[in-house]
Backbone:
């Protein structure tokens, strides 16, 4: 598999150097792998720190900036960062108002953030944690490590980030983050596997005439494999899977998210089908976002995330944000 | 009796076998995980051997605590905290003794394995590293060689299991038929003990 890289070992460091050059508004510590808002710590305001494996860009580093994350810790590709990074990030952004860790529900991320929270609290930093677990493809949590965190991470980081930006206290920011996670569900499909730089070949074998339903964001196979479907059929399947688990009484935010290798032309077409299913099911749409936000390297495919919002959450969603990956109103 | 030098040899032997087997570990992690287990552990044990050369701790417990801390700081993923906790807790259980015997090491390792089970929430039969560690530690009472063989058998015995913890659990029944990469690397760790003992 051809990749635009030098060697696999330096992929993350190279990307961070390039990010630093492109975004002077961020402080990028390449050696310690921490990306911080240049104006951190912001006086009197709660800080948000997230992190996870690399390979999901723009998540998380691309969401650092006013109105969203204060700092992000990128790990190796698909590998949770280590506690040292998270503690360093927390110390860099804490203004005394406390830090919210936004953690996607993967064993590695959870364990490392738990360790980091203990170490940061030892240093006198007040830490709260919110776990993102929105993936409905994982049905029986009794026999799994629980539901995976996927697209809803963007909604949690944006909306809780806006609450922090308004000066809301830590317990309030944490409660809002939790409310967003509980209000959001996702379902993803893959038309191809992805290739990690370390491995150099696709992570699983997906023949041309087939697709994987219910994938996560780490190039792992899904729950089930079927013969290739049309955009219309995939939208029916994905949206209905989400609505089986979420019965929105309020309007929803819609995220039609590309996995990395699916062109916008296809994503917009897929969004048209998603909107059709929502209209047929009587679900009102408040806002829609289409693009590559929570990706899986060069995987082809898409995920649908719905998040039902009340007036307060919608107001926070619409609040200004200025990050490399998400920007409006400022 | 086993002194700090034995424990350093254990870590060095494990690092060498992780180096040798890195590609196989990653290949095992590909169909049911995220294809990084080999490269992650390789990075961690490289850091362990470098730190042991630099610091040369003088008790068995200190060697393992230092090694565990290196793994937590460099591996990432679930493997970092799990392997790091295993070594740190085993090291703490060994205390300040300058030398320990095989029975004391077995007891300490049991404490380490218990800590891993608590941290990861996994039990025997969940298709994880625990499935190699538990039989390995149980056989340590007999000999280092017996521990190595039991851990290896434990890793092989994960093939027909359905994963209930870790990323492989998302595959449900499709995780059946694949050997667990974590159990495989745990068998390497136990085999490192036998190598350090010359068995």
Residues:
């Amino acid at each position: 598999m051809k990749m635009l890289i030098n060697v696999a070992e330096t992929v993350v460091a190279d990307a961070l150097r390039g990010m630093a050059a492109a975004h002077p508004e961020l402080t990028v510590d390449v050696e310690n792998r921490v990306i911080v808002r240049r104006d951190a710590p912001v006086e009197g305001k709660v800080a948000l720190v997230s992190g996870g494996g690399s390979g999901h860009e723009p998540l998380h580093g691309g969401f650092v900036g006013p109105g969203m994350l204060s700092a992000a810790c990128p790990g190796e590709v698909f590998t949770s960062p280590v506690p040292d990074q998270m503690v360093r990030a927390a110390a860099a952004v804490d203004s005394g108002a406390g830090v919210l860790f936004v953690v996607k529900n993967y064993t590695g991320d959870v364990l490392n953030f738990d360790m980091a929270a203990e170490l940061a609290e030892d240093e006198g930093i007040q830490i709260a944690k919110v776990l993102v677990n929105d993936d409905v493809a994982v049905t029986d949590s009794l026999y799994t490590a629980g539901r995976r965190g996927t697209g809803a991470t963007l909604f949690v980081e944006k909306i809780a980030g806006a609450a922090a930006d308004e000066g809301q206290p830590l317990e309030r920011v944490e409660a809002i983050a939790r409310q967003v996670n509980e209000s959001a569900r996702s379902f993803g499909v893959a038309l191809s596997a992805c290739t990690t730089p370390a491995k150099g070949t696709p992570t699983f074998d997906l023949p041309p005439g087939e697709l994987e339903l219910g994938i996560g964001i780490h190039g792992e196979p899904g729950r089930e494999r079927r013969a290739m479907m049309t955009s219309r059929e995939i939208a029916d399947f994905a949206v209905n899977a989400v609505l089986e688990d979420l019965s929105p009484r309020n309007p929803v935010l819609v995220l039609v998210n590309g996995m990395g290798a699916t062109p916008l032309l296809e994503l917009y077409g897929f969004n048209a089908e998603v909107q059709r299913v929502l209209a047929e099911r009587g679900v009102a749409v408040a806002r829609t976002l289409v693009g590559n936000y929570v990706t899986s390297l060069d995987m082809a495919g898409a995920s649908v995330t719905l998040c039902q919002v009340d007036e307060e959450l919608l107001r926070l969603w619409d609040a200004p944000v200025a990050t490399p990956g998400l920007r409006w109103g400022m | 009796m086993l002194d700090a030098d034995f424990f350093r040899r254990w870590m060095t032997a494990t690092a060498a076998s992780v180096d040798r087997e890195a590609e196989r570990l990653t290949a095992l992690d590909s169909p049911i995980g995220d294809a990084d287990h080999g490269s992650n552990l390789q990075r961690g044990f490289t850091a362990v051997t470098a730190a042991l050369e630099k610091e040369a701790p003088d008790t068995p417990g200190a060697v393992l605590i230092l090694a565990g801390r290196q793994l937590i700081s460099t591996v990432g993923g679930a493997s970092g905290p799990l392997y790091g906790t295993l070594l740190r807790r085993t090291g703490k259980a060994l205390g300040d003794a300058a030398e320990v015997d095989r029975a004391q090491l077995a007891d300490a390792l049991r404490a380490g394995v218990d800590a891993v089970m608590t941290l990861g929430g996994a039990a025997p039969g969940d298709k994880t590293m625990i499935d190699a560690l538990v039989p390995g530690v149980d056989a340590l009472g007999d000999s280092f060689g017996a521990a190595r063989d039991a851990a290896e058998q434990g890793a092989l015995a994960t093939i027909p299991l359905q994963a209930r913890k870790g990323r492989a659990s998302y595959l449900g029944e499709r995780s059946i038929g694949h050997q667990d990469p974590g159990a495989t690397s745990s068998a390497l760790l136990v085999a490192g003990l036998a190598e350090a003992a010359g068995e």
Notes: Chain A has a mean pLDDT of 96. The radius of gyration of chain A is 19 Å.
